[in-house]
Amino acid sequence: MARTFRYFEKKRRHRRTISRPLAIVGEALFFTVFLLGGVVGLIVLYLTLVVPQWESNREFVPHSCTVLDKRIGEKESDDGPLYRPEIQVEYSIDDEKFVVWAYDIWAFDTTGGYSAGKEEKQRILDRFQKSARYPCWYDPDDRSRVILQRGYRWPLGLLFILPVAFVLIGSARLIYLVFLVGRSAERRSALVQKAVQLAPFEPPNKALADYPAIPGGLNLTDSPGTTLAFRLPISSTPSWIMAVTWTVSLIWNGIVAWLSVVAIRGHLQGQHDWPLTVFASVFAVAGVVLIVYAVRQSMVTTGIGPTLVEISEQPLRPGAEYKLFVSQTGRLRLRRFEVSLVCEEEATYRHGTDTRKESCRVSDQTVFEQEDFEVVRGLPFEVNCSVLLPEHVMHSFKSAHNEVNWRFIVRGQVSGWPDFERSFPVLVYPGTNGNGAA
Amino acid sequence: MSGPRIILRLDENGRVYQPGDTLAGQYRMTSIERDDVKALEVSVLWFTEGKGDEDMGVHYFKRLSTEEGDWIDPRRPGTFAATLPNSPLSYDGRIVKVRWCVRVRVFLAGGREVVGQRLFRLGNVPKPKLTAATA
To answer: Is A212 contained in some domain?
Structure first.
């Protein structure tokens, strides 16, 4: 069926994806504006920063002048007074006499060369004596334009970072969009895959070549175990989670404290800002929840010792049986301790400007469980068990927005403590006959 | 009169393919004039469906273009053959689905495109039974 231009491409439940040509046109317009903004910014900076400095240093004619008077010029701005050094000089060119106020090239700039810092300007003036002669440089095109100080202000070059970034981002995206136009999704995908295979700085990944769309999992097999062949890495370390939780909690509650101070000060001064008070109160409630969560994380991290999980073989194959070793340290009274092998699907999608992630557990197999026992400090609780991976299951899968992940999950219910859960990812490859069984 | 179409046929029609098997078949164009055809692409690919944004991986890709001197005759059926990879296997999950297909895309004069697609299964992974939303 011949394809005609459509505003919307397809409807996915309650979401609609916009037509691809329309999206490309919109994106091209956006990044063209981005690029043009950068180019205009560069031109303006070039004309206002580079050209005057270049002309004053390379084209102004050397001469000499007599200082008649000097003063500090002052101008009011929103940020307070600004100053500039002003020196009145007298000089003659071809019998024509000029008396002007001058210092450097920035006096002719739109800012007039004003800046903060009166003392610095005074120090400049102190270098010049009245009635003394000094070298100066005048503009051959306008001989009344004269300067007493030359040089380049290199730090101003930092101003170029922003427009250069605009130009780079805009042009890179436009080049990419030009690459998209006229090429089918399949052709683009094939080209990208070829480029990845030819990437000069990436070592060839044989596992990925043999098993496309299955994560390489190098970090899953590079740590040997003490009891079994491989020690499984934990997906996110408890101490890292604790640090992040406390950081977020401190930042949030810092904002709450600031809002509270402003609100309370207003009430004390008789200026009752009720919207701010309500806003700060809602923030404070969330802040308390964050602190409780952070304390809970700290208790789990510091009070419950590390969990080690080792496995006899990696990657796993459907239908095969593996040995598993689990070790839990700490000083705990466990109401329940459970190890399970789970499979979760994860999908990432854009909804408007948001990127959302959703996961769904499709398999949860208990490998080991024990109730009401104690773990003594210095004597870790250790368990050896076996796990049979079911025959007909999906292998690990990873693409840009969709994943199927397998992991061992260790859950513990500790008397007087928050429950804990630790996750250890594993790789599952397809069975050798393609139907799951090894 | 029906519009331009592409009809795809797989050898051993309907069977489930296993990694390492050869997927072979034919494509045929109908209601397309020879002078209209500018280029033709044959792909064997997987793509995802479900909650997440669509991803795609091309396993086999062949492009014929009249501008590059290739001869494309819509009256004669074309053939393709590709050895299937170890992964990803076809999967009909709860929120993630992996589909395999052969896709033929014909580029016609005036910027029009005609696409024909034929799904097939790679591997025997059944639909998962247990469901528990976790996020």
So the answer is: no
The residue segments making up the domain with residue A381 are 304-426
Helices A20-45 and A161-180: crossing angle, nearest 10°? 150
> In A, which residues are within 8 Å of B91 by CB distance?
394, 397, 404
**Complex ipTM, two decimals?**
0.91
Q: What is the pLDDT along chain B (135 residues), one digit of tens a residue?
A: 578 899 999 987 767 899 999 999 999 999 888 889 999 999 999 999 999 999 999 999 999 999 889 989 888 999 999 999 999 999 999 999 999 999 999 999 888 889 999 999 999 999 987 554 443
Q: Which fold has domain B5-120?
A: Immunoglobulin-like (2.60.40)
Q: Taking CB atoms and an 8 Å limit, are A187 and B41 in contact across chains?
A: yes
Q: Which of B49, B80, B134 is the mutation pick for testing A, counting most A CBs within 10 A?
A: B134
- Asked if the Cβ–Cβ distance from B93 to A361 is below 8 Å, we say no
- Token duo for residue A217: 């999992």
- CB of A320 within 8 Å of a chain B CB? The answer is no
The domain that holds A314 is classified in CATH as: 2.60.40.640
Cβ partners under 8 Å of residue A144, min gap 6: A98, A100, A138
A189 neighbors B45 (Cβ within 8 angstroms) = yes
Check CB contact of A54 with chain B, cutoff 8 Å.
no
A93 within some domain: yes
